[in-house]
Amino acid sequence: MSDRPLKLLLVDQDPIFRLGLRVALEEFSNLQVVSEVETNTAALQILAELAQQDLKSINLVILELGNSRSLQSQQIGLQLCRQIKTQYPNLPILLLSSVQDQGLLLAAKSIGIDGYCPKGTPVTELVEIMQEIVAGGSYWYIFNDTIAQTPPPHHPTTPSPYHFFTRLLENLRLSGNAQI
User: Which domain of life is it from (predicted)?
Assistant: First the structure.
């Protein structure tokens, strides 16, 4: 890796998240947030402007796949990925997203997206992932299997009292990620 910093474009609807990520990344001298945008249209506009000058002024696009939990928002995010990969096939894209839909992530991977990790990934790990992707690699976070196991025979329909709290904590974590 050269001494030149990685130049990043952040695309996320949430200004607080973008600010937090930018501030966290400022701790790393080998990273530079060149631009941050709220909308897909603004992202395409910035990339078009940079392509006229020198597209190499961006090494990596980091974006939220869906600005909300709606399927429509997620499909629009997937369409943005498709547009970027069509217009700039050599520009790596990392999804830093609260989206966990495996089908949507497989669709993103199939159109050439270079990586995915969930929001909440520790910053040092995120920096390593970004460097790996810019170097030509890929990174796809794998969720734990969520396939429901058959309950024990002596309690076929009664869920464990801990199951409720486990689901509650998971839902709170996901809603917190969505708000960040």
Answer: Bacteria
At 22-47, the pLDDT tens digits run 999 999 999 999 999 999 999 999 99
3-state helix, strand, coil split of the chain in percent (to 5) is: 45, 15, 35
Cβ distance 60 to 9 under 8 Å?
yes
Q: How far apart are the first and last CA of the chain?
A: 31
Alpha-carbon dihedral 167, 170, 172, 175, rounded to 10 degrees: -120
pTM of the model: 0.76
Q: Which residues contact 154 (CB under 8 A, 6 or more apart)?
A: none
DSSP run (H or E) holding 78: helix 71-87
Provide CATH code, domain 6-140: 3.40.50.2300
The closest alpha carbon to 108, from 95, 121, 92, 89, belongs to 95
Q: Domain locations in the chain?
A: 6-140
| Separation CA 18–CA 106 (nearest Å) | 25
The phi and psi torsions of 169 (rounded to 5 degrees) equal -60, -40
